[in-house]
Amino acid sequence: MSLKDTIHRLAAEYADQTVALRHHLHAHPELSFKEFETAKFIGKELRNLGLSPQEGVADTGLVVTIEGNNPTKKVVALRADIDALPITEANDVPYKSKNEGVMHACGHDVHTSSLLGTARILQQVKDQFEGTVKLVFQPGEEKAPGGASLMIKAGALENPRPANMLGQHVMPLIPAGKVGFREGKYMASADEIYMTVYGKGGHGAMPENTIDPVLITSHLIVAMQQIVSRNASPKMPSVLSFGKVIAQGATNVIPNEVYVEGTFRTFDEEWRAEAKRRIHAIATSIAEGMGGRVDLNIVHGYPYLENHAELTQRTRTRAEEYLGKENVESLDLWMAAEDFSFYTHEVDACFYRLGTRNEERGITSGVHTPTFDVDESSLQVGSGLMAWLALEELRG
Length: 396
Description:
The radius of gyration is 23 Å and the shape is elongated. By secondary structure, the chain is of the alpha/beta class. It has two domains: 3-186 and 304-395, Zn peptidases (Aminopeptidase, 3-Layer(aba) Sandwich), CATH 3.40.630.10; 190-302, Alpha-Beta Plaits (2-Layer Sandwich). The chain is built from ten helices and 16 strands. The longest helix is centred in the last third of the chain and has 21 residues, at 269-289. The two termini are 20 Å apart.
């Protein structure tokens, strides 16, 4: 039996166990950088496989190596993120979140259980490959500064250092059984904008006696949209969005201040810096010009994610070999952000998408929604494919 056939067989044989792992993780989600019980669970599962994980990396992260023959020949790293989101789950399923207000609504339970399934497969075939596979279970993907950056600082990519790194992420737009790839730039950088606009409140019937921060904020938000529409090159996709505006006034009360949160995303570091300079300039000039002032804080977040071209080409070809060419799709640029991007700026890396959609069963909700779920046949695909991709990269 070929190695590919062996991996297919093992992925199918362990599928129920992988799904059970996912159910446990889904029912017990923990927020970013608070994944203490999750980390204990992962550590226990790895030790049950006869592995010796390094625990407490960046507090709640874990790193473990699986060595084949001639372990120093080459090292490949695989990554899963382990944190959940502050969302109350609306699904009525046996594995529904037991932690009120916290949910694995971005599929990190799938990533973690799939990588544990991959570990189980690799342990069974470690006498059939040369080199080392490093597994990275990373906290805090959902929250700045990003667990990936902290794992890198803590040495997760050292001793041994991988030649390259692979990561996968659920994709509810792609049917289960399929995966998606894109070479080069794929996901955007992400900066967080926090802004408080100060004025002078008063009675809504006498605005002439106030400095209206609501009006100032309105001008600010509209003017800032010109940063993208009138300054960004059409060849450089950018997004500036404001999703939170709080003005604690009333129908007849103009408040003293307005609080705003937003995000800026793009794919070019020079333009990223220039856009943030323009955001500061517009906010300051308009607020002061209208008699108010602004307190603006832009938190520098994740860089853009760039898939190494040659590695991604190889990985896509191998995915076609494992799943069939008809089950591998091409991806478009994605304005969402991912802290796997930090790894792509450290080592040659490839981040691909794992299809989880099943329209017949009504599994169509997007990530970061209270009804997100997956077709769990994707876990068998995810665990087997990662094992295959890692071993082929070690061999090639």
